[in-house]
Amino acid sequence: MSAGPDGPEDRLRRFATIWSRAVFPVTSTSSTRPEFEEQLLPLARRLSEALRARTFDADAGKAVGAALVAAHCTDPEALSRSLDCVDAYLVLYCGTDGDQEDQRARSARLQHAMAAGFAQALRERTLAEQEAISAAALKAQGVVAQALHATEARFRAVFEGAAIGIGIADLEGNILQVNGALLRMFGVSEQAVRSRNVKEWTHPEDAPQTWKLYDELVRGEREHYHVEKAFYRPDGTVLWTNLTVSLLRDADGDPQYQLALMEDTTERRLLNLRLRYEATHDALTGLPNRTFFFERLEKALGAGEGQRFGLCYLDLDGFKTVNDSLGHAAGDRLLVEVADRLQSCATAPGEMVARLGGDEFVALTTGSDTEREVDDLAARIMNALIAPISVDGRELTVRGSIGIVEGPAGERSPAEVLRSADITMYRAKSAGGNRFELADPEADARAITRHGLTTALPAALDRGEFFIEYQPLVHLGDGSVRGAEALVRWLHPQHGVLGPDRFIPLAEHTGLIVPLGRWVLEQSVRQAREWRERHDGAGPLRINVNLSPCQLNHPGLVQDTVDILERAGVAPDALCLEVTESALIGADDDLLKPLRRLAEMGVDIALDDFGTGYSNLANLRRLPVSVLKLDRSFTQSMQQFPADPVDLKIVEGIVSLAHSLSLAVTVEGVETGAQAEQLRILGCDTAQGWYYARPGPPERLHELALVDATG
Amino acid sequence: MERPAWAPRSIDISVPSVSRIYDYYLGGSHNFEVDREAARKAMEFMPGLPKIMQANRAFMRRAVRFAIDEGITQFLDIGSGIPTFGNVHEVAQSASPGAHVVYVDHDPVAVAHSQAVLEGTDGADVVAADLRKPQDILTSSQVERLIDLNRPVALLLVAILHFVEDEDDPYAAVAELRDALAPGSMLVLTHASYEGIPLPEERAKGTVDVYRDIRNPLIMRSREGIARFFEGYDMVEPGLVPMPLWRPDTAPEDEDPYAFSGFAGVGRTA
């Protein structure tokens, strides 16, 4: 054999080339064709040798067939093409010059062996690969199963350890599984729960939609719902829950189970109920409060056609006096008793009583016949108040003024209704109290609402709608004018001149009293200087200015007063500040400190309305007071003749006590000469009242003082 | 075996798998009847599918050798499927015995099979992870053990990106991998496309439908869309081309027309 151009080796190579060209297109190998040819070359050599071997060796053919499979010629077409190639070219390129027929027969046998070897190898490879892939699938499934197991264990732990109750039931409602938290909530054993059906868990307080939602869910029409739901525990107590029920579907989306998550809200609910009660009820009387009343009123006013409402707005007459004279505790007890009586007046369905605040109550009646009912209701209330109320062993007569509003639903807002009732109540009050009045749109329009005044107050100060009148203070000994009390008035653009009783409480309430009070003080002090300048000879004229409780508490009081006096160049002793007795009841040193400082500077402090309140005589010692102003109630009885000897004794006692404490005594409300004489005899120092002069412009005082000086 | 984080809820071998179908195209028997059924259906529309797979394998072989020639000895083959023959580690390690290869696949059966095949092989391992979560791959113990991220890596994304839908943002995943690999790293990529298939598009679409039906949609992208994966890479000559035209060993004229379906390319970061 030689490797020459047409030598055996070259011929073998050419055979391999032909073979590789035929088979390469149907192989799966990633080799290039030349590389593939290199793989076939040894196979070609083996076939060539087998062709020429002395004896036939089937194994050579089988090995070549198997090698084809190993070279990734697994496509049957690869075998077919290989056999074609061997059949056509093996003898031609690798044969000898010997018997051609024999060589062709040998070639055919080699092809049979190749086919057998190929089939055998392919079968083994296929089986091996099938086994390998099955093993891989099994292993992967094992991994997944393990993962699932771990996941399941984790979910199990979550299920069991969850603080919220979890339960799973089938779509018929049979309970399949519940967790520990749920058992603890219900206070039952797992057995007791698992034999039950969720549909048995009804409760009278179930919201109407609860079971409708449930039905929708188990029918697969709803994915989940959330309700507040009550359950009975086996011991009969009630469990309140926040319940969320979800539908669980299988992989195909078909409903399978229902999952309930529940949170125990029993405690929270109780707390909520209590908070709600507290938010809607008056702590003192237990009656519904303003909030609750407005809710109800709003509902009543929003009711359908044919529905009406009737409202009684009650304000007690003279309650402030009770509070001031007997103390707040007594006032509170009175209110509680009134509340109880009112409640017994409104017991029919659709009726309610509420306390709006202070001594203001409302009674509401609703329905279609409130025109008649509301009159009855007002009458019942008036009747209920007739019997005196016993507080601390005293029999107190309580009277009230009622404003009634009645009308069809759907026309007015709650605020409008209440305003109308308020106005009407005031009408009843100004007509003397102890009566009820029916709302009248025209009267409403005329009436001055507290609301309207309150909102107009700030602008009124800016616009200079206030002015001051002065009422002389006369010395009882010689009848000379010693000073005057400054009394603020409001010239309201619509309502004319309003007295302080109409707006001072409102100004107190809104805090406007501080700037207003400062303005009054400024004006009055300036007036005092003017008087001093104008009639030097008539002796010093003092100016009395009222201080409201709110001003007393204002931190700028002392500084403001000092500034005003200095600016006007007026000595402190020309000023007397009047403070009501009730404002100083229970006053501690902090409150008294500013008054003390003013008193030390020389400002006189007068205790106003003395005798109407607590009149704690012992307390007088510690107050920085230099003047007592006796309330007009003491002087009223002296208008008659002869005067009530007891009243005389009381006044005499007070005067004697005041003088022994170095306090001057001023009396108010002197209307007759007899009164004035009587009071002079009793030792009072100064007096004011219509007998001398009504409050008037500053010029009037000037004239009076001048009369004194000349007369 | 450590539990893979992505473990599916179950393995259902009654559902065809793209890696077993691929094996069938390559004449392997690592497949089940469901896989073969799907493969036969796909081949009804595109009888030359196996030729495309072979061209992929041949390209990958050339690209791995190219990477070795360029001095890269670390390979990250994502979407490695079921290794039948001519795998990256065989090609790489025959050219550079110390080369390291990490295979990545999200098909648990493919991973299990790879583990069996790689048993006792040094320098090669397989990670069960998903291309869509590059961090799972990069932080795997196998990558930590075999790949030095401070040195260049050849990232192989051969015949995988066309199985990632746009809503899963394959571009972001590829960019994240690019940023995680050292400068000088390579991206070796092939991608299916209607461009180059020797059939009318309507007919080729039949094959796409088969993949859609087995819930492994085949996303055919344009050359332009495929080129976007190489953002941040410098293209290696001859750029993004049909597979037989990328640095061929033999005359491309000899190749089956189907081998020209889709595109192949190699990019390298600076």
From TrEMBL, chain A:
<dbReference type="InterPro" id="IPR000014">
    <property type="entry name" value="PAS"/>
</dbReference>
<dbReference type="InterPro" id="IPR043128">
    <property type="entry name" value="Rev_trsase/Diguanyl_cyclase"/>
</dbReference>
<dbReference type="InterPro" id="IPR000160">
    <property type="entry name" value="GGDEF_dom"/>
</dbReference>
<dbReference type="InterPro" id="IPR001610">
    <property type="entry name" value="PAC"/>
</dbReference>
<dbReference type="Pfam" id="PF13426">
    <property type="entry name" value="PAS_9"/>
</dbReference>
<dbReference type="InterPro" id="IPR029787">
    <property type="entry name" value="Nucleotide_cyclase"/>
</dbReference>
<feature type="domain" description="PAC">
    <location>
        <begin position="225"/>
        <end position="277"/>
    </location>
</feature>
<dbReference type="InterPro" id="IPR001633">
    <property type="entry name" value="EAL_dom"/>
</dbReference>
<dbReference type="InterPro" id="IPR035965">
    <property type="entry name" value="PAS-like_dom_sf"/>
</dbReference>
<dbReference type="Pfam" id="PF00990">
    <property type="entry name" value="GGDEF"/>
</dbReference>
<feature type="domain" description="EAL">
    <location>
        <begin position="450"/>
        <end position="709"/>
    </location>
</feature>
<dbReference type="Pfam" id="PF00563">
    <property type="entry name" value="EAL"/>
</dbReference>
<dbReference type="InterPro" id="IPR000700">
    <property type="entry name" value="PAS-assoc_C"/>
</dbReference>
<dbReference type="InterPro" id="IPR052155">
    <property type="entry name" value="Biofilm_reg_signaling"/>
</dbReference>
<feature type="domain" description="GGDEF">
    <location>
        <begin position="307"/>
        <end position="441"/>
    </location>
</feature>
<protein>
    <submittedName>
        <fullName>Diguanylate phosphodiesterase</fullName>
    </submittedName>
</protein>
<feature type="domain" description="PAS">
    <location>
        <begin position="151"/>
        <end position="221"/>
    </location>
</feature>
<dbReference type="InterPro" id="IPR035919">
    <property type="entry name" value="EAL_sf"/>
</dbReference>
Automatic annotation (TrEMBL), chain B:
<dbReference type="Pfam" id="PF04672">
    <property type="entry name" value="Methyltransf_19"/>
</dbReference>
<dbReference type="InterPro" id="IPR006764">
    <property type="entry name" value="SAM_dep_MeTrfase_SAV2177_type"/>
</dbReference>
<dbReference type="InterPro" id="IPR029063">
    <property type="entry name" value="SAM-dependent_MTases_sf"/>
</dbReference>
<protein>
    <recommendedName>
        <fullName>Methyltransferase</fullName>
    </recommendedName>
</protein>
